[in-house]
Amino acid sequence: MSPNQWTVAITREIPEAGITPLREAAAIKQWPHDLPPTPEQLETLLQDCDGAITLLTDSIGGPLLDRLPKLRVVSNFAVGFDNIDVPAATERGVLVCNTPDVLTAATADATWSLLLAAARRIPESRQYVRDGHWKTWGPLLLLGQEVTGATIGIVGLGRIGKEVAKRARGFAMRILAFDPYQDSAFAEQYGVTYVPLDQLLSESDFVTLHVALTPETHHLIGPDQLRRMKSTAILVNASRGPVVVTDALVEALQSGEILAAALDVTDPEPLPADHPLVNLPNCIVVPHTASATVQTRDRMADLAARNLLAGLKGERPPASVNADDVLPS
Ligand code: GLV
């Protein structure tokens, strides 16, 4: 099929870097609204498309794919792909792609922003000034937790977890990690000690989550795990909301079981503005923006477009989740 006969969907506005390469090769159907399409609207948008750039807010399962027999490539504009039923896509010969690597540094930087902001109580401090409470310098004013020399526990030492670990070296931290897949060369080079999850939780001053959402990591951090953490500990989540049991976290923050939390992701997402996590003084919530820099979002758009085009041409995309199972070897 000649390229300009392809029709592709883009399920939201994305940076131009992802649209230009597609415009030259295919007819584009782009969702024009700020809010995601409903499942019915998504199906209508994807109807008669050969491929699509999708977002983590688009749920793609087997029954939907059955109703979209023309769709051959789903190129997710995200490193995570828990919004897509990959086995169902593979069974139907649909290629699934994602955007790893290009967002690793930005996400690690954002993790550190959250960790430092929670440790040093930056949102509370800002509010204190805005509310006109700042009358003098105070020896006991808004005391936070020391980061330098503390222990950080990284749950999920994959690409992003490793970048978080590298940055922790700059803070002279003791670095613990929990991950069933161990990279001993990395651990040795960066002074990381792999430990069981329970030990990580009980010994860390900062616990930061970087696992993919899978059945194994769903609710990995619940009431028992929060109970194991120090009462001075801070929990950072830059992975997926459902890795943490939301109600248990609210309870742990309210009762003082842990000191604070800083969340890029939540369950549900978005959180309503009147949710306790949004309003607790010891919890920072940002709207899933860990990879949101101009530069990173351009790179994600470019990679998503290149993945899509390669898949449509029957070539191996730069980043795919199931190419080995879907493309002829
Ligand atoms: C964002 O959460 C992503 O998976 O890229």
Q: Approximately what portion of the residues adopt beta-strand conformation?
A: 5-15%
Total domain units = 2
Number of helices: 14
The strand order across the widest sheet is 8-7-6-9-10-11-12
- Which small molecules are bound? glyoxylic acid
Q: What is the rounded distance between the termini?
A: 21 Å
Q: Topology as H/E string?
A: EHEHEHEHEHHEHEHEHEHEHEHEHH
What is the number of strand segments? Answer: 12
**Low-confidence sequence ranges:** none
Rg, alpha carbons: 22 Å
Residues in helices, as a percent range: 25-40%
Assign the CATH superfamily of the largest domain.
NAD(P)-binding Rossmann-like Domain
**CATH class (first level) name of the largest domain:** Alpha Beta
Average of per-residue pLDDT values: 97
Largest β-sheet summary = 7 strands, parallel
Notable characteristics:
329 residues; alpha/beta; Rossmann fold; 2 domains; 5-stranded parallel beta sheet; 14 helices; 12 strands; binds glyoxylic acid
What is the topology?
Layout: E1 6-10, H1 20-23, E2 26-30, H2 39-46, E3 51-54, H3 62-66, E4 73-76, H4 86-91, E5 95-97, H5 104-119, H6 122-130, E6 151-155, H7 159-169, E7 174-178, H8 184-190, E8 192-194, H9 197-203, E9 206-209, H10 223-228, E10 234-237, H11 246-255, E11 260-263, H12 276-279, E12 283-285, H13 294-312, H14 323-326
Parallel strand pairs: 1-2, 1-3, 3-4, 4-5, 6-7, 6-9, 7-8, 9-10, 10-11, 11-12
Helix pairs in contact: 5-7
This protein binds glyoxylic acid.
The site of glyoxylic acid has 6 residues, from loops.
